[in-house]
Amino acid sequence: MENSYEETIDKRRVHLRPDTLRDPAPASLHLLPCEVPVNRPTPVGRFFTPAIRMGRDGLEASFRGRSLRGEEVVVPPGFVGYVVTEEKAEVLMGKQDDHERQEQELLEPPEALERDCDRFMGATASFSSFTVWGLESIPGPDAKLRGALSWPSLAAAIHAQVPED
Questions:
Q1: Which of 9, 10, 126, 132 has the highest Cβ tally under 10 A?
Q2: Residue 93 structural domain
Q3: pLDDT at site 40
Q4: If 0-12 CB within 10 Å is exposed, 13-18 middle and 19+ buried, where does residue 21 land?
Q5: Strand 66-74 vs strand 129-135: parallel, antiparallel, or unpaired?
Q6: pLDDT > 90: percent of the chain
Q7: Biggest CA pair distance of the chain
Q8: What is the pLDDT of residue 89?
């Protein structure tokens, strides 16, 4: 390595396992207008099991006594959404010690893409739509989410072949 910046980049290589993208189970997703200051598995279903009603202006539900208004958002055509989680090293390596792992790599060398990665991700579910919720009102067209979902069609338009006259 030439400098510490390159060392930092080297330690952030992530590999998304392609075999997990083949047939992940479909999921029902809800984007809630709140922040949870914890980054670990939690029994969300215990706290949010939506009784969704169709109101005059769209979907309605409540969360801990607060009124939520929402709408279904469809993933752009030609794309699929995935729920991705980090796979633990013990699961990947079968809790082998270094000597056993080195012997295993001699018999079955890791794929070139996996060799230099220190984090591995896998898809646990897929989705083609999700429900986005707002407090008291439906998130408007200016929401950051709408901007992010408009990029695929914008990129396709920019990179499309221009017909000759």
A1: 132
A2: 14-40+48-139
A3: 76
A4: middle
A5: antiparallel
A6: 13
A7: 66
A8: 56
Task: Identify whether the C-beta of residue 132 lies closer than 8 Å to the C-beta of residue 143.
Answer: yes
Output the CA–CA distances (angstroms, integers) from residue 165 to 130, 158, 161, 162, in the order listed.
42, 18, 13, 9
Q: How many helices, marked H, and strands, marked E, lie in the chain?
A: 6, 9
* 110, 52 contact by CB (below 8 A): no
* Token pair in block for residue 145: 């989410």
- Inter-residue contact 114 to 120 (CB < 8 Å): yes
Q: What's the pLDDT score for residue 155? A: 84
The answer to the question of residue 157 being in a domain is no
Extract the tokens encoding 133. 């919720």
What is the CATH classification number for the domain harbouring 92? 2.40.128.680
Mean pLDDT, the chain cut into blocks of 10 residues (165 residues total):
56 79 90 79 73 88 86 88 81 51 51 65 93 84 74 84 82
Q: Is residue 6 part of a domain?
A: no
Domain tally, the chain = 1
Give the DSSP letter string of 15-30: EE-GGGGSSPEE---E
Structural contact between residues 17 and 120, judged by C-beta atoms closer than 8 angstroms: yes
